[in-house]
Here is the input.
Amino acid sequence: MTCLRLGVVLATVLSAGAAFAQQTMTERMNAGFEKRAPQVGDELPDAKGFELTGEPYALRGDRGHLTVLVFGCLT
Amino acid sequence: MPFLRNVPGLEAVYRDYAPKGVRFRMIYKSIVHPGTNGYTEPYTLAERLRHVKVARQRLRTTVPWICDSMDNAIKAALKAAPNAEFVVDAEGKVLRKRFWHDPAELRAFLAEQVGAVERPTQVADLDMQLVFPERKAPRGVVKPLAMTERMRGLRVAPVLPKAAAAGGDDEAADSAPPFFAKLVAEGCRQLLRTGEGRLYLGFYLDPLYEVHWNNPAGGLSFRIERPGDAEFEDVTGQTPNYEHDIDIDPREFFADIAAAKGAELRLTVRYTVCDDAETFCMPVEQSYTITLERDPHAGSRAGDWMTELCGDPMQFDKNEDGRVTRAELPAKRAQLIINHVDRNHDDVITAAEAKLFHDMIRIKPGETGR
Here is the structure.
């Protein structure tokens, strides 16, 4: 019985390992984002950045408008 | 770089839906691939704001941009991927989120929310070719350092003049030269785990300052010390003599470090730069602290892993017609290569697109980097 249980555990671990190996890096990052980023229906968190003039910008300051946020940089 | 590829598509959606009352914010955050086109993480908010202005100008986009704080507060709050996208309703609640922005899908979503546009703006109608101006000094003349193992970005901070660091009068900071050379420091797994191991150092000239190395003036040298640790043997480095008098390539080194786990090291560098406009040449001595801890915002140098993943896309031109189609690419890497190299979204890679890709990440076709 113990051997059977060990076998099941081993098979599960190997199966999970194989699934992980088959996932691309992008898929793993995507899964992490889906899990950790705010969920649909969640209120936007309170965080602050800057307008290009250097004036403070509040993430929640766009309330009252349908707003699209897209992240990027120079590279 | 897939982000850069998506900018024209976002611009088209912005032009169609901003007039319908939708707000658009491009959030400029920490650099994903330090070294691409020479850009690395800025050291001050003023520099990051200048990055955003350069990005808007070079990408020729009119979408309003927001600059994330230097501690990456917005990125951290939204756990954002490099090109993540969120749509937020008028009550401030998340309506939709995507790991990777897709202009076509965003357009379809906004059409559901506020109605379709009768004549959608086409990317082809926009003059949005990515333009990086030619520099006075050459690049690509110093061979990149061949990586022997995977490295992780470490925490690096400039050592500011004492008056500025104390939070007092910024006069000392104002009169001091800017950090023309930005330091990228990476450590091998063992260095992070134990404090002993291989350290990568890359000194990248910040394109914001339009300066170049003045090689006949003695090259670049550095010294790493661990203040207060008599046991730590200082590590030094010096560039060799170069054939070219001037260039803008990074200066890269490996250093073997024997310190404690998580130790804070102080690196002092000396070099001479001249500005492209030929108004000054200046010897510089500046210091940075390197903490032997992983920096979650450090990104990954494209010239390293991307070379390994993408190689020279033209090598897959099986029928030798000068173009590489998706069908010719290895199935497992096809999407990744298309995302990074295909600029005009036609699923075909041309020699010109491959050259642009290599120019951006500073490798020559055929070089593996490893």
